[in-house]
Amino acid sequence: MTTVNNYTVYCSTEAAYKYNYWLPTTPTTCPSNSTHTIDTAKTTVVDSVSSEIVTIKETSVETQGRYQVAPYTLDITSSASPQTFNYQNNDYPFNVYMVSFQSEEDHRGDYLDVLAAPYTTVGAITSNVTAGDTVINVSSGVITYMKVGYRVTITDGTNTDELGYCREVNSISNTITVGTAAAHSFAAATPTYVQFSIGFTRAPILLHTPREYVFGGGKVGASYVPKGAVNRIIYTNNSGVAKKMVLFFETDY
Hints:
By secondary structure, the chain is mostly beta strands. It has 3 domains: about 5-50, no CATH class; about 65-110 and about 205-250, no CATH class; about 115-200. It has one helix at about 140-145, and strands at about 5-10, 15-25, 45-50, 65-75, 85-90, 95-100, 110-125, 135, 150-155, 160-170, 175-180, 195-200, 205, 210-215, 225, 230-235, 245-250. Strands 5, 7, 8, 9, 10, 11, 12, 13 and 16 form a 9-stranded antiparallel beta sheet that branches. Strands 4, 6, 14, 15 and 17 form a 5-stranded antiparallel beta sheet that branches. The chain has a 3-stranded antiparallel beta sheet with strand order 2-1-3, with no helix packed on it. β9 and β10 form a beta hairpin. The relative contact order is 0.27.
């Protein structure tokens, strides 16, 4: 029987977590640069696949099994610009089973978006990108870590284009296909970096009639959140009135 694990490792050189590192043995170097050192104490197995065993699961990471509700409060200002709230799990890893919140009348007409691993750089373009392109030539790191359904961003430090969702990862041609065409031209020599974000929501949620929103209540299993991982909540306030919102994360640890 052959088992391959999906590792999350912490690169001490870059001071950042690296995700989706599939290997048959425990990694000893950084996935993006083999000359970088990693903190092996922070290496975790997020998932496993076996040649002989088939299971239905959302996560394979064992915890102590203790239930906990973790509230997170958004203090939203009156600004109409999108407001960013970063929730970083610095205490211990846990599994999230469900997220819920109650919208009130003062939330009507606003938008809420939730991202995991926001704007994680995984490589660079390898050929110039012209405005209108949807097929992007990329480095091997992008091919390794980009997944269909991830949100794609490219940036050269001057221009940043949100390219929608990744539709295809082609390891033969070393290209990715995106859902939104590039608005600017980018040079490979600049360099131009490729980033991904994992959207918990398919698109920003329009808050309308006051009600309770529950996410994850209809699925089996949980989503693993490693220690140090960043989740980003983006709130767009269209009323011009300051307000609060409390999100509840049902977890075990």
